[in-house]
Specification:
The protein contains seven helices and nine strands; from the N terminus they run E-E-E-H-E-H-H-H-E-H-E-E-H-E-E-H. By secondary structure, the protein is of the alpha+beta class.
Length: 241
């Protein structure tokens, strides 16, 4: 079924509201349509013990992802109330961390740790891709502050990183899925790329279905269109600061 408000290869409206968490080194409220995520970066002196023990130089970046109880239609219990960490959240925060470490010069960061917190305020599909996209802007803001304070000579952010979701529904390729589309697609794909259009991560799977190489190529082509569009908005957000 064709979309009513946008074409199959069009992303939802994207906005970046910066400075939403004043105590963080960099923060942004990123919106992809009705999906809204607060991404904040804190910088702490020192690195994890394993880096010291192994003699690893430079700094470190780690990410945490959380869906707030009121982010979904039905209240989502907090992990602390459930007594265990949600497995999906662990998988997503690992993806966020991997994606962002590919964009950050850890040597330029120095002996410091960047904590990236992504908290979903409203979930309407694509929360992991929105988190990666928003967190990249937050890191860019944090890097500017580190330079301004004389803590680093250059921003640790060496490349912008953007992410987008895709799927196959009724034989058609859709870009940037909302929740209603995401729950019905036969194929689900998450794409993460640098501004040089280099791949960082590609997650693709059939939802009780299979897909062809031609469909994969079509999703990659559509995904690149979306990534370029997202990168434009990221640059605009950072240029305003």
């Amino acid at each position: 079924m064709p979309r009513t408000n946008r074409t199959n290869r069009e992303v939802r409206p994207i906005t970046f509201q910066t400075g939403v968490a004043p105590n963080a080194y960099g923060s942004v409220l990123v919106s992809f349509g009705c999906t809204k995520v607060i991404c904040a970066v804190c910088v702490q002196e020192g690195v994890p013990r394993w880096m010291k023990d192994q003699g690893v130089s430079g700094g470190w970046l780690t990410a945490e992802y959380n869906m707030l109880p009121y982010s979904t239609l039905d209240r989502k219990p907090r992990d602390v109330a459930r007594g265990k960490v949600d497995g999906r959240s662990v998988e997503i925060q690992r993806l966020i961390g991997r994606s962002l470490r590919a964009a950050v010069d850890l040597d330029a960061l120095g002996q410091r740790t960047m904590w990236v917190d992504c908290d979903v305020l409203q979930a309407d599909g694509g929360t992991r891709t929105a988190s990666i996209t928003g967190a990249c802007v937050a890191i860019g803001l944090a890097g500017k502050r580190l330079v301004a304070e004389g803590k680093t000579r250059r921003s640790p952010l060496k490349s912008l990183v953007a992410a987008v979701s895709l799927g196959v529904l009724g034989g058609e390729i859709l870009l940037d899925l909302d929740y209603e589309e995401d729950k019905d697609v036969a194929v689900d794909l998450n794409l993460v790329m640098t501004e040089g259009m280099e791949l960082i991560e590609l997650q693709a799977s059939g939802e009780e279905a299979v897909f062809t190489e031609e469909q994969l190529a079509g999703m990659m082509e559509a995904g690149k269109v979306g990534i370029r569009r997202i990168l434009e908005e990221q640059r605009k957000a950072l240029e305003k600061i």
